[in-house]
Design brief:
about 60% helix, 2 helices, mainly alpha, about 80 residues, single chain
Length: about 80
Amino acid sequence: MPGYSAPTREDDPVHVVRTIGRIAQMLMELRDEYERRPRADTLAQIDQRLNDLAEQRAKLNSRRGLGAGTTPTGFGGAD
């Protein structure tokens, strides 16, 4: 069944990953909107969604047992 996903525990990282996906989709829609009509309030929304994304990254790292400021090897850090 499309759109159905199996139930998971509340602390399962899949919840965070889904939220990251929703925020990413919002960012793409805001980008399209800003390209059509550049407005300061759209930029403010983009900035807020980027902050939301950073919060989700910290949550994901926490659930993976990494520190909030930690960048896993192979993901933009100095390898």
